[in-house]
Design goal:
Layout lengths: L1 H16 L5 H9 L7 E5 L5 E6 L4 E8 L2 E8 L4 E6 L2 E4 L4 E2 L15 E7 L2 E8 L13 E8 L7 E7 L6
Parallel strand pairs: 7-11
Antiparallel strand pairs: 1-8, 2-3, 3-4, 4-5, 5-6, 8-9, 9-10, 10-11
Length: about 170
């Protein structure tokens, strides 16, 4: 009797760990605003980045501390490798889960990105949204954004990527 119950518990935990963010949470992060009643979005102050450089390896870490979370990017200049960092874990773009069938995960400038935190129910994510190096400001890419969502868990959580178009309503 204990074995089937333990198996069910493990399956429930695995499903919860692999849960994808909802479309409402994705929209809140793309728009950088709360989406009542289910998603609370909070902007993160992104003015105190820590830069660590390993000149021998050509690697740089640019991170931002928010409470217990340390988030940011890493890159290797000479090989053009890039990825995200969450609480010490480096995640290359190739390992990030895509939420759509659009463009592959994109490189972005952490200083120009908008960093935030979103809560929906018991789930919590760090959101990083960016406009493709200024291309999202005009032309056919107007209002187009990339979005990374990092699950906030005691251990490094899953990282998701998607793109979306943000059309702000005029008052």
């Amino acid at each position: 009797m204990k074995t089937p119950l333990a198996g069910l518990l493990l399956c429930a935990l695995a499903v919860q760990a692999d849960a994808r963010p909802s479309s409402t949470l994705i929209e809140a992060c793309l728009r950088t605003e709360t989406m009542p009643p289910s998603v609370l979005y909070t902007s993160l102050a992104a003015n105190a980045f820590e830069v660590m450089e390993d000149e021998d390896a050509g690697k740089i870490h640019i991170t931002l501390q928010h409470g217990r979370d340390k988030v940011g990017i890493w890159e290797v200049k000479n090989s053009q490798e890039f990825g995200l960092i969450f609480n010490g874990k480096e995640m290359p773009l190739a390992l990030i889960e895509r939420l759509d069938h659009g463009e592959p995960p994109a490189v972005f400038n952490p200083y120009e990105a908008i960093w935030g935190k979103a809560h929906e129910g018991r789930e919590s994510y760090i959101c990083t949204t960016f406009n493709f190096g200024g291309l999202g400001k005009s032309g056919t890419f107007q209002n187009r954004r990339g979005l990374y969502l990092i699950e906030r868990r005691p251990h490094p959580g899953a990282i998701f990527y998607t793109t979306g178009k943000v059309v702000l309503e005029e008052n």
